[in-house]
């Protein structure tokens, strides 16, 4: 349901239907009860004036909407070249943009419906005075919506605004994907040899794994008294006729319906997709055609923010027991995999930029200072080493290289002081 209500057309459609109902109700009320005395603010003109006013409002509303949104889409398409496709997706799902479009379309539909009820002549003349009055108010609402829309879109295509939106998405995704460490339970997974004699399930179709229904899979395995291993993770592309699951001693029923495939990656269970959207912004900023290291460092700061929020939280093990019996094992994103998604692309594209490399090392140092987990320190140390290896090869200026070596040395010393990472 949320996927439907978030579509660009949903709110405008609801507003248009509401406008049509109001137009019909206004006509019915006036035909039955007329205009009470004392309502001086209600339109009091004749048939000719009503036709002209309603026609002007209808043509203006749809004309302005078409022109403004056409120009806006062109500007957004140009801006998406440097910010990524997330900008367009955010524009279509933004409730403010939907409300503006709905205001214009609802005004157009309301005035057209009202216009058809205007009748002249001597037989049965009728002018919908309530509706003409409301049409004038809707015209003023369209003007206000236009002013709001221009200011809103201008803020929306700002690079910092886009990065902050992606940061908020990443925060929510990490909160869904991790647990509070004091409450987390990590049952052990069986060795790989346990699954060698199992029955394989191959995918009959292809696409990105958008949803893995672990509750349904656990219920199916419990019902049939088997253990089930899922081989693919949300966000991975599933090729046809490739193994996606293994059941021991046999496969339970209902596995394929719990693996939802689609033509594109989506947020939700696919944590790395949210991370890669931010990393893509940094990679585009570091391309030779854009050359914007400031944006890349902004993205690195947001990644540091996310990693600091992970301190004290832990990843699910992906192992599910029911009544002390193994029922399901499924792949999950690890801390190391998260770091790979965050920093590999930025490191590769930004290795020749000392400003980017320095900020990468600074952020890793700050994250390491607050992190207490030994395995996470080892992953941070691994990425710091990769960054310095590329920097030594690409950095030409001796002064820049000295700064990088100093930052790297400080980072390694901080990790070693915790006694949780291998020495240099």
Automatic annotation (TrEMBL):
<feature type="transmembrane region" description="Helical">
    <location>
        <begin position="53"/>
        <end position="78"/>
    </location>
</feature>
<dbReference type="Pfam" id="PF10011">
    <property type="entry name" value="DUF2254"/>
</dbReference>
<keyword id="KW-1133">Transmembrane helix</keyword>
<feature type="transmembrane region" description="Helical">
    <location>
        <begin position="7"/>
        <end position="27"/>
    </location>
</feature>
<dbReference type="InterPro" id="IPR018723">
    <property type="entry name" value="DUF2254_membrane"/>
</dbReference>
<feature type="transmembrane region" description="Helical">
    <location>
        <begin position="130"/>
        <end position="151"/>
    </location>
</feature>
<keyword id="KW-0472">Membrane</keyword>
<protein>
    <submittedName>
        <fullName>DUF2254 domain-containing protein</fullName>
    </submittedName>
</protein>
<feature type="transmembrane region" description="Helical">
    <location>
        <begin position="99"/>
        <end position="118"/>
    </location>
</feature>
<keyword id="KW-0812">Transmembrane</keyword>
